[in-house]
Amino acid sequence: MTDSSRQPTRQPWNPEGYAQHANFAPNQGDEALSMLAPQQGERILVLGCGDGTLIERIAKRGAEVVGVDTAKERVATAQERGVDARVMDAYQMTFDHEFDAVFSYGLLHWMLDPQTVLAGVKRALKPGGRFVAEFGGHGNTAAICTALIAALQFRGISTHGRYPWYFPTPDEYRHVLETVGFKVKSLALVPSPKILPPGMERWLTHFAEPFIHGLEEDLRFTIIDNALLTLGYTLHDGYDNWTADYVYIRVSASV
């Protein structure tokens, strides 16, 4: 769910890759969902519908759920599950004080203008409504990003406009929330390293597109290979496991 005017490169939607590398909700979203605590009869907005799994989980608690996403492919995949998913840009939401809660998981680090997004979230909420989110925080995939940037710079390739994410510190994000008018209830940085069963090469193939966008195919493979060599020193263990150095921000706020 991105705005191409703000994003260096749009991340392509690959349902199989998403299921392997990005669909953490079935296994890792429990803490965020517990913070959300959806209630029977509530109306809840989900930013970033993914494949619809999160919407289904919340709806099973008795809430009426609407999911939005920029990518038509993601919305179509979610709609196949029978959920209410709509094509809408997070920067241009049109909802007006109609939701009891807004929830987002694994999305907001793609939003490079967080204040605009949060203003839309606040406008979508009823008075007293709550906002719960979990997304990449300061230090998230730091080793991976550094390895990719180093591989590019070694070949004299400019990295300007190639870094696609917003990984704020808790203090940074608290400031944005309070500037928009939220009352922060809790805000924490949570290290969450995750073993990657398909391996680091598959992860890079799925997520590194913004770093290697526009490069010739041979050079793209070379950049990924060089990043893998560097990462082998820190994220690859003696049992041939690759670990992604995830760090999340988990936040709960209200209006």
Describe this structure as you would to a colleague:
The protein is an alpha/beta fold and 255 residues long. It has a domain of 166 residues: Rossmann fold (3-Layer(aba) Sandwich). Helices cover 37% and strands 21% of the residues. The protein contains 11 helices and 9 strands. A 7-stranded mixed β-sheet has the order 3-2-1-4-5-9-6, with helices on both faces. A two-stranded antiparallel sheet has the order 7-8. α6 links the parallel β4 and β5. α6 packs across α8 and α7 packs across α11. Keywords: Methyltransferase, Transferase.
**Secondary-structure content class:** alpha/beta
> Sheet with the most strands?
7 strands, mixed
Mean of pLDDT:
91
Number of separate helices: 11
Low-confidence parts lasting 5 or more residues at pLDDT below 50?
1-9
End-to-end CA span:
24 Å
The CATH architecture of the domain at 15-138 and 165-196 and 245-254 can be given as 3-Layer(aba) Sandwich
The count of β-strands is 9
Task: State the share of residues found in helices, binned by percent.
Answer: 25-40%
Strand line-up in the sheet with most strands: 3-2-1-4-5-9-6
Strand content: 15-25%
Q: Considering the protein shown, what is the CATH homologous superfamily of the domain at 15-138 and 165-196 and 245-254? A: Vaccinia Virus protein VP39
What is the succession of H and E elements?
HHHEHEHEEHEHHEEHHHEE
Overall body shape: elongated
- CATH class annotation of the domain at 15-138 and 165-196 and 245-254: Alpha Beta
The name of the CATH topology of the domain at 15-138 and 165-196 and 245-254 is Rossmann fold
For the CA atoms, what is the radius of gyration? 18 Å
GO biological process, one term: methylation
GO molecular function: S-adenosylmethionine-dependent methyltransferase activity
Organism: Vreelandella salicampi
Protein name: Methyltransferase domain-containing protein
